[in-house]
Amino acid sequence: MLIIGVGHPMRGDDAAGPIAAERLADRGLDAIVLDGEGARLIHAWEGRDQIVVIDAADGGGPPGTVHVIDAAKEALSSGRFHYSSHAFGLAEAVETSRALGDLPPNFTIYAITGADFTLGKSLSPDVAAAVERVVERIAESAEKAEMP
Amino acid sequence: MTSTDQTLPEGIQAQNRTIVVDELARVEGEGALDVKVEGGVITNIKFRIVEPPRFFEALLRGRMYSDAPDVTARICGICPIAYMLGAINAMEDAFDIVPPAPIKRLRRLIYCGEWIESHVLHSAMLHAPDFLGLADAFLIAKVNPDLVKTALRLKKLGNTILEVVGGRAVHPVNLKVGGFYRTPRKADIKGLESELEWAIGASVELLDAFAGFDYPDFEQDYLCVSMRHPDEYAIQEGNLVSSRGLDIRVADFPKHFYEEHVEHSNALHGRTREGEPYLVGPIARYNNNFEQLSPYAQEMAAKVGLPRIVKNPYQSILVRMVETLYVCEEALAIVREYEEPTAPSVEVDIHAGAGAGAGGDGSAARHLLAPLQPQRHRPHPQRHHRAADGPEPAADRGRPARCRAGQPRPR
């Protein structure tokens, strides 16, 4: 399982993905941080069986709401995830991989609704709490997966 | 700006309309466009960059000269090398450093890597879908999966070059004033060879595929401004030249060009001192320096019907692929000849001085970085070991210059 935290660590709630990934890496899990540029995402999950992505999202309930998306089954729409500044971001990368037949068969996205994406701000309280919940949940499922 | 109604879609002819596009799609960063049409004629176009200024000039002031490349790298995550080498060139100009050939060749190699990844991302993922009438960038993978696979593999090669020479693909850490922190190992550089051999053919494949697109019949007689180097296709250093014979040192940029703030945008508008707009980027470079491309790149350009002087802006996608082909050849040549330099960098003799440097960006809309110009600084002989006595960059950059049509953003 590879965990990818997507976002910018210094742009408010956009740091949700990177912070969660760092926490999970501290627990010994295979977790990396990427900026959300689509081609780099595709290269990261190329040939993997199981991918978990954590990213901040625009909308989808009050700040801190966590949507768990089974990307292997559900198509993603652009614009849902915050700031795909390269216009070829997470949604495009997933759909490109799917079209090429290369999408990892197990692909879960934790989309955390953000409130404030201002440069230089830290996580808003609701989002920080959501990050904790997501970290626990992913760590738990990783533990279960490892059990014989 | 005005235009005759022939250039307007039928529905807008002979009408009064204001078209406001609040978010331009498939460009990096946030841009908007207002178009005013009166009696079928475009009477005003406002291209707005809405992102706030980032004040890189202020960030650099008072810092160590050696911080400049790593700070300016943060202007963009796709094209950091252009900013890093622009800053390095300026500092080396101020310190009268001329790096030895092996260091220059390594710099050229990492720049080739940046052009490959930046050009391919822009052409295949952002620009090509427009020609195919696709609403979403990923749809091109359904229409032409082989093209997308080739583009992704090429882009990955560009990233790998950045990693091997620069330490990592995003905001590389191995470049410094005077050279590199660590010399890349010969085996690692040689490891790029076979993929670069593949990449030359792959670039031609993409070029051929893009050549099959329908190109709108539109030409404009641009004033083209780019760098030029006496010995090679200008990538990492050179003078500034124009298609009308201007040939100046980078430091003289402010004498011939100015940039001003306009109310509707956070990006400065650049013009010649005569008030004329000018074109920078791949088309300008190609038009000004075509003869310095490799014979093969020139031949392939002719084969896909690119004229010697490109005036159709839609053809920028083809020019980008010709440049990609060229930098793949160039990178392969550098890789093949590579021997580890005896030292990764030259000694920096810190003293007060002024310098200017430019970098040619791969695909960014700004393309040609305004010179970074350290200001003359009062020397303090007793403290001259401290870099604070070195150049103080009054950096003329890092404002919301659009990076591939967007305020570059460090992600």
From TrEMBL, chain A:
Signal peptide: none annotated. Gene3D superfamilies: HybD-like (3.40.50.1450). SUPFAM superfamilies: HybD-like (SSF53163). One of its GO terms (molecular function) is enzyme activator activity. InterPro entries: Pept_HybD-like_dom_sf, Peptidase_A31. Keywords: Aspartyl protease, Hydrolase, Protease. The keyword Hydrolase applies. GO terms for biological process: protein processing. It comes from the Bacteria. Belongs to the peptidase A31 family. This is Hydrogenase maturation protease.
